[in-house]
Amino acid sequence: MKVIVGLGNPGKRYQQTPHNVGFDVIDKVACDISCELRRSFRFKARIGRGLFGGEEILLVKPETYMNLSGRAVAPILRYRKLTPADMILVADDADLDIGMLRIRVRGSSGGHNGVASVIQSVGSEDFVRVRIGVGRDQSGRGLVEHVLTAFSPNERKLVDEVVVRAGQSVFCVLESGVEEAMNRFNGSVIDKNIGT
Predict the structure, then answer these.
(1) Active site includes 19?
(2) Residue 39, strand partner residues
(3) Whether 128 contacts 97, CB under 8 Å
(4) Which of 2, 19, 46, 131 is catalytic?
(5) 51: part of which helix (H) or strand (E)?
(6) What is the rounded CA–CA span in Å between residue 61 and residue 148?
């Protein structure tokens, strides 16, 4: 079994914001494999089980709020007797421009509190992460306000394209491995003329 975790914040207030693109990718993957996510009070997450390529996958949207994401992820891995290497983590990245997608095999949190919480809770940096660029605000707003404020319509259109591509990259990791996914999907949707 592989676990696909998308980071975000629960509740309508945070929908359509940069910090919730991880949730958006999980919703897209769930739709693509006809998987329904249900609330698990035991694990403080929305969880769905589905099949891809004959392998069972577990989709997870922590409901602990971003900075405590690891409190949901670590117990799920323990219960399923899985290791961090069995996980793909999807999260926003303010250091990447909007439209960018970057897959990494492992690494630090890069200053992302949700990723840091997962690393601390599972005790390892050795898991695949799919990072979706959300950029930084150019008008002087701080980072926190930026990632918790809804995208503009033009930004949202571009982000929606990246979300689709990120979902495809998750399937590629599962089917062909992370190196193939990096070669095919790392980069900008603008450069790859997605949607044109």
Answers:
(1) yes
(2) 46
(3) no
(4) 19
(5) strand 45-52
(6) 17
